[in-house]
Fold these 2 entries.
Entry 1:
Amino acid sequence: MSAARHGHSDIIRLLLRNGAPINAKGPQQATALRIAAEFGHLDATRVLVHSGALLDEKYDDGTTALFIAAENGHGDVVQLLVNEGADMNVQSHSGATALLMTAMYNRLEPLRILLDAGADVDLEDSCGWTVLTMAYFSDYPQLVHLILERQPALMRN
């Protein structure tokens, strides 16, 4: 887990070659993939993904590596995970999605990536918030503009 936290791709490769379980879980059920994604370590994330890490493995709160990468604004990691087939519409225990977190934390690049890849803009969290309502009420007009530009049908709702 420490190698993932610090982005030490070479150590991750060595550990995996010597039989380290790729999907082992640490505190809060975090996998090495989730930790590498959380800290924005693109190469470490790539090594883990290409070595067979489970893309949609859930953390104890129902979040995934994609969710946490989007929340933390790591667009390059988000792009990699989306390209590799991570489920963009996984909902946490509170119903939040990676897309919703980009709006909550003003993460423009991950928002753009997820919208362009077809993430579901209509999913609601447990409070009934969608990505558009979150961006609007969080006072992020640039995000609202991007969402409406990519999803013009939302203006009719």
Entry 2:
Amino acid sequence: MQVINIEAATYTVEEVAELLGLSRGNAYRAVRAGEIPAKRIGRRWVVPRSAFHAWLEDCQLPEAV
């Protein structure tokens, strides 16, 4: 049986907040609202790295005014 390091496969919400320049609270709000791809494991939220990077690539930036 192969053991997978789940920590290497996921980000914490705090790490995502830091990567995106968000406050911890705003990152949790975005996760709960489904705006950032995340999974709940027990009471803990994890953000799969592959899903996060795919989501980030697909994000539409607002057009300059």
